[in-house]
Write a structure and sequence with these properties.
171 residues; elongated; single chain; four-stranded antiparallel β-sheet; alpha+beta
Length: 171
Protein backbone atom coordinates (compact mmCIF):
# COMPACT_ATOMS: atom_id res chain seq x y z
CA UNK A 1 0.00 0.00 0.00
CA UNK A 2 2.82 2.42 0.83
CA UNK A 3 4.17 1.98 -2.69
CA UNK A 4 0.89 3.20 -4.25
CA UNK A 5 0.67 6.51 -2.36
CA UNK A 6 1.44 9.43 -4.64
CA UNK A 7 1.64 12.66 -2.65
CA UNK A 8 1.40 16.03 -4.42
CA UNK A 9 2.69 19.47 -3.42
CA UNK A 10 -0.01 22.12 -2.98
CA UNK A 11 1.94 25.12 -4.25
CA UNK A 12 0.73 26.72 -7.51
CA UNK A 13 -2.29 24.41 -7.99
CA UNK A 14 -5.73 25.69 -8.99
CA UNK A 15 -7.95 23.61 -6.70
CA UNK A 16 -11.74 23.59 -6.75
CA UNK A 17 -13.61 22.43 -3.66
CA UNK A 18 -16.86 20.43 -3.45
CA UNK A 19 -18.87 19.93 -0.29
CA UNK A 20 -19.78 16.25 -0.02
CA UNK A 21 -21.65 16.26 3.27
CA UNK A 22 -22.36 18.50 6.21
CA UNK A 23 -23.88 17.24 9.42
CA UNK A 24 -24.95 18.82 12.68
CA UNK A 25 -23.47 16.89 15.57
CA UNK A 26 -24.46 17.16 19.22
CA UNK A 27 -22.43 16.86 22.38
CA UNK A 28 -24.46 16.40 25.55
CA UNK A 29 -22.93 18.20 28.52
CA UNK A 30 -24.00 18.93 32.07
CA UNK A 31 -25.37 22.28 30.95
CA UNK A 32 -27.36 20.85 28.02
CA UNK A 33 -26.64 20.12 24.38
CA UNK A 34 -23.80 21.73 22.43
CA UNK A 35 -24.28 21.78 18.64
CA UNK A 36 -21.45 21.85 16.13
CA UNK A 37 -20.96 20.98 12.46
CA UNK A 38 -18.91 18.37 10.62
CA UNK A 39 -18.10 18.90 6.91
CA UNK A 40 -16.57 16.49 4.39
CA UNK A 41 -14.90 18.35 1.52
CA UNK A 42 -13.21 17.13 -1.67
CA UNK A 43 -10.75 19.39 -3.54
CA UNK A 44 -9.24 18.78 -6.97
CA UNK A 45 -7.79 20.50 -10.01
CA UNK A 46 -9.87 18.36 -12.42
CA UNK A 47 -6.62 17.15 -13.99
CA UNK A 48 -5.68 14.08 -11.94
CA UNK A 49 -5.09 15.62 -8.52
CA UNK A 50 -7.61 15.21 -5.70
CA UNK A 51 -7.80 15.28 -1.92
CA UNK A 52 -10.40 14.93 0.83
CA UNK A 53 -10.70 16.47 4.26
CA UNK A 54 -12.88 16.68 7.34
CA UNK A 55 -13.56 19.92 9.19
CA UNK A 56 -15.38 20.36 12.49
CA UNK A 57 -16.43 23.67 14.01
CA UNK A 58 -19.29 25.46 15.75
CA UNK A 59 -20.22 27.29 12.52
CA UNK A 60 -20.87 25.84 9.05
CA UNK A 61 -18.51 28.17 7.14
CA UNK A 62 -15.65 27.53 9.58
CA UNK A 63 -16.18 23.76 9.33
CA UNK A 64 -16.06 23.94 5.51
CA UNK A 65 -12.91 26.11 5.60
CA UNK A 66 -11.21 23.64 7.95
CA UNK A 67 -12.26 20.77 5.67
CA UNK A 68 -10.71 22.50 2.66
CA UNK A 69 -7.44 23.05 4.54
CA UNK A 70 -7.38 19.38 5.61
CA UNK A 71 -8.12 18.26 2.02
CA UNK A 72 -5.17 20.29 0.69
CA UNK A 73 -2.89 18.30 3.03
CA UNK A 74 -4.12 14.95 1.64
CA UNK A 75 -3.66 15.38 -2.14
CA UNK A 76 -2.96 12.39 -4.37
CA UNK A 77 -2.21 11.96 -8.10
CA UNK A 78 -4.55 9.72 -10.11
CA UNK A 79 -3.85 8.49 -13.66
CA UNK A 80 -6.55 9.76 -16.04
CA UNK A 81 -6.30 8.51 -19.64
CA UNK A 82 -8.57 10.10 -22.29
CA UNK A 83 -11.02 11.33 -19.65
CA UNK A 84 -11.49 7.93 -17.98
CA UNK A 85 -9.64 5.55 -15.69
CA UNK A 86 -7.12 2.94 -16.93
CA UNK A 87 -8.90 -0.18 -15.62
CA UNK A 88 -11.68 -1.55 -13.40
CA UNK A 89 -11.14 -1.33 -9.67
CA UNK A 90 -12.91 -2.54 -6.54
CA UNK A 91 -12.18 -1.14 -3.09
CA UNK A 92 -13.62 -1.25 0.40
CA UNK A 93 -13.41 1.00 3.43
CA UNK A 94 -15.44 0.15 6.52
CA UNK A 95 -18.87 -0.98 5.34
CA UNK A 96 -18.68 0.86 2.00
CA UNK A 97 -17.67 -1.02 -1.14
CA UNK A 98 -17.10 0.73 -4.45
CA UNK A 99 -16.75 -0.55 -8.01
CA UNK A 100 -15.30 1.77 -10.67
CA UNK A 101 -15.18 0.89 -14.37
CA UNK A 102 -13.85 2.83 -17.37
CA UNK A 103 -16.43 4.02 -19.89
CA UNK A 104 -16.38 5.12 -23.53
CA UNK A 105 -16.49 8.74 -24.67
CA UNK A 106 -19.87 10.41 -24.12
CA UNK A 107 -20.96 8.21 -21.22
CA UNK A 108 -20.47 10.84 -18.51
CA UNK A 109 -19.96 10.25 -14.80
CA UNK A 110 -22.46 7.55 -13.80
CA UNK A 111 -21.96 7.69 -10.05
CA UNK A 112 -23.94 8.79 -7.06
CA UNK A 113 -23.43 11.21 -4.21
CA UNK A 114 -20.03 11.14 -2.57
CA UNK A 115 -18.42 9.09 -5.36
CA UNK A 116 -19.56 11.60 -8.00
CA UNK A 117 -17.92 14.51 -6.13
CA UNK A 118 -14.59 12.66 -5.91
CA UNK A 119 -14.59 11.46 -9.54
CA UNK A 120 -15.53 14.88 -10.93
CA UNK A 121 -12.85 16.58 -8.81
CA UNK A 122 -10.24 14.21 -10.25
CA UNK A 123 -11.24 15.24 -13.77
CA UNK A 124 -12.71 11.94 -14.90
CA UNK A 125 -15.31 12.64 -17.60
CA UNK A 126 -16.51 9.10 -18.46
CA UNK A 127 -16.84 6.41 -15.81
CA UNK A 128 -19.30 3.86 -14.48
CA UNK A 129 -19.36 3.55 -10.70
CA UNK A 130 -21.39 1.57 -8.21
CA UNK A 131 -21.43 1.77 -4.43
CA UNK A 132 -22.50 -1.23 -2.42
CA UNK A 133 -22.99 -1.68 1.28
CA UNK A 134 -22.93 1.39 3.49
CA UNK A 135 -23.88 4.78 2.04
CA UNK A 136 -22.01 6.64 4.79
CA UNK A 137 -20.33 9.59 3.00
CA UNK A 138 -17.13 9.34 5.10
CA UNK A 139 -16.58 5.71 4.18
CA UNK A 140 -17.68 6.17 0.54
CA UNK A 141 -15.15 8.96 -0.01
CA UNK A 142 -12.38 6.92 1.62
CA UNK A 143 -13.29 3.78 -0.36
CA UNK A 144 -13.28 5.79 -3.60
CA UNK A 145 -9.85 7.18 -2.71
CA UNK A 146 -8.62 3.65 -1.96
CA UNK A 147 -9.79 2.55 -5.43
CA UNK A 148 -8.15 5.55 -7.11
CA UNK A 149 -4.87 4.93 -5.26
CA UNK A 150 -4.76 1.40 -6.70
CA UNK A 151 -5.01 2.74 -10.29
CA UNK A 152 -1.92 2.21 -12.43
CA UNK A 153 -1.38 3.46 -15.95
CA UNK A 154 0.52 1.42 -18.58
CA UNK A 155 3.59 3.70 -18.28
CA UNK A 156 4.04 3.00 -14.55
CA UNK A 157 3.49 -0.76 -15.11
CA UNK A 158 6.17 -0.84 -17.84
CA UNK A 159 8.57 1.12 -15.64
CA UNK A 160 7.89 -1.09 -12.60
CA UNK A 161 8.44 -4.31 -14.57
CA UNK A 162 11.41 -2.92 -16.51
CA UNK A 163 9.89 -3.68 -19.92
CA UNK A 164 8.78 -1.67 -22.94
CA UNK A 165 5.26 -0.39 -23.55
CA UNK A 166 4.79 -2.89 -26.43
CA UNK A 167 5.41 -5.82 -24.07
CA UNK A 168 2.81 -4.48 -21.60
CA UNK A 169 0.09 -4.66 -24.25
CA UNK A 170 1.29 -7.63 -26.33
CA UNK A 171 2.51 -9.85 -23.50
Amino acid sequence: MAEGIRKVKTSDLELKDRLVSIQRVTKVTKGGRTFSFSAIVVVGNEDGIVGHGLGKASEVTTAIAKGIEDAKKNLIKVPVINGTIPHEQVAKFGGAKVFIKPASEGTGVKAGGAMRAVLESVGIKNVLAKSKGSSNPHNLVKATFAALLEMRDPFSIAEHRGITMEKVFNG
